[in-house]
Amino acid sequence: MAGSTIVWGLALRPDGPVNGVLDLFGLPAQPWFTSPHQVVLSMIILASWIGIGYWMMFLIAGLNDVPPVYYEAARLDGAGPIRQFFSVTIPMLRRPLLFVLVADTVSNFVLFAPVQILTDGGPNGKSDFLMFDIFHQSYELSNPYQASVELLFLLVLMIAIVAVQFRLLRTDDGEE
Amino acid sequence: MHASRTFRITMTAVAVIVSLLFLAPVLWLVASTFRTATETFANSSPVGWSTLWPQHWTTVNLSSAIDNGFLRSLGNSIVVAGVTVVVGLAISAMAAYALAVIPFRGRSAVFTIVVLSFLVSFEAIAIPLSQSFSDWGLSNSLVALILPGLGNGLVVFTLRQFFLGVPPSLAEAAKLDGAGPFRTFWSVYLPLTKPALIGAGLILFLFQWQAYLWPLLIISHSSLDLAPVTISKAFGGFSTDYGRVFAETAILAVIPAGVLLALQRYFVTSVASTGSKE
């Protein structure tokens, strides 16, 4: 996380290679993390690049568990690759997809390292995400009570998301 | 037949382009490790082959990383992750076995707590937990870094799923041969779920390898800093040596990449294709 953060932080510097690539296509250089309007977009690019590799592991494990006979049966019934993907792969991957959807959401709710390393919540407080603000309030601004309240909000939010996820996993368990 | 061939070629082309997009930052990182930071940024725009390929190779960044004590932080990270994998796997596998196979009172309540524990991110409880840790006199120790990684709810949950997938007939056969619960666990369940165990070990490893907030909260002696914290300190310093940052980041990335490549073949098989051949 910290490693990818730094690589992307440097790659997205105004004089970095990402702007170099834009230049190749005749596009103007972008300010990325240094602009209040683009900092959130830059964070999303960074978090997605990190997340795809990690969460893909869970989906690959799920893919390996799909019995090949299902694909054979679909092929015999005349299903093409696209049809097989939507009628065999997606339904068989329902559980891992669901898990990844919620777990990835929850983990990005507490996105911290990129903010702390790259922007310190700036510019103009535009990347002052919840987890960073809690850390910032309690350790750098000596504001532990406000931090506690924010933490409570974060926990309530998470429990709400988790409750929904739990419901979904439960009904899934029942089907087995 | 012809349509399927065109389709295959198109899909392969798409796959190659997508993997190049993901590979490019990694190649840039490796290239920047072996050239000076000045050269790195001079070749950033306009992009060309020189962006991903050093013109003047140098190991000055690597020696700068080593001179600044990066190997000690790397050692700390390796010890923390290694102990977490071994001890955490033992604890989680036994917990998962109990939750999957041994019926006991309150089992579903325990399982619910385990699931809740990994659905709520660790970061959300890290700050209050770090205060408890310092009240207990645990701050600034390797133990404090290792402890939160040991009981991993996600690992318990995944292993339980795999244990549930082991055909009960195998456990019954072991029982008839006189095996107790521990023997059944050791000789039937663990060997059959090897790919799952490797995957679980990987989750435990990555949790510690990428840990950032927790080490920041619990460690104040720089001799105990983990590698990611050391890198971010070097990055945030007053006069940043970007070459050194590139080199340290490359070292930090190459270790999990090596582990993943070495273990990749185990992900191909899984519990679905082992055991009962009915």
How would you describe the overall organization of this protein?
- The complex is a heterodimer of chains A (176) and B (278).
- Chain A has nine helices and no strands.
- With 176 residues, chain A is mainly α.
- Chain A has one domain: MetI-like fold (Orthogonal Bundle), CATH 1.10.3720.10.
- In chain A, helix 4 packs antiparallel against helix 5 and helix 8 runs antiparallel to helix 9.
- Chain A starts with a helix and ends with a helix.
- Chain B has 278 residues and is mostly helical.
- Chain B has two domains: 57 residues, no CATH class; 208 residues, MetI-like fold.
- Chain B is 74% helix and 0% strand.
- Chain B contains 15 helices and no strands.
- The two termini of chain B are 35 Å apart.
- Chains A and B meet through helix 1, helix 2, helix 3, helix 6 and helix 7 of A and helix 1, helix 6, helix 7, helix 12 and helix 14 of B.
The percentage of residues in β strands of chain B lies in under 5%
- What class, by secondary structure content of chain B? mainly alpha
Flag low-confidence runs of chain B.
Answer: 269-278
CATH topology name of chain A? MetI-like fold
Biggest sheet of chain A, in brief? none
User: Kindly state the mean pLDDT of chain A as a whole number?
Assistant: 84
Quaternary assembly: heterodimer
Number of domain modules of chain B: 2
Can you count the beta strands of chain B?
0
Q: Please summarize the sheet with the most strands of chain B.
A: none
Distance between the termini of chain A: 36 Å
What would you give as the CATH superfamily of chain A?
MetI-like
Q: How many helices of chain A does DSSP assign? A: 9
Largest interface: A-B, 58 and 49 residues
Q: What class would the helix/strand composition of chain A place it in? A: mainly alpha
Rounded average pLDDT of chain B: 86
- What's the overall geometry of chain A? flat
CATH architecture of the largest domain in chain B: Orthogonal Bundle
Return Rg of chain B in Å. Answer: 24 Å
Kindly, what is the distance between the CA atoms of the first and last residues of chain B, rounded to a whole number of angstroms? Answer: 35 Å
Q: Which CATH first-tier class of chain A would you pick?
A: Mainly Alpha
Protein name (chain B): Lactose ABC transporter permease
Subcellular location (chain B): Cell membrane
Transmembrane segments (chain B): 12-31, 78-102, 109-130, 142-163, 184-207, 245-263
Family (chain B): Belongs to the binding-protein-dependent transport system permease family.
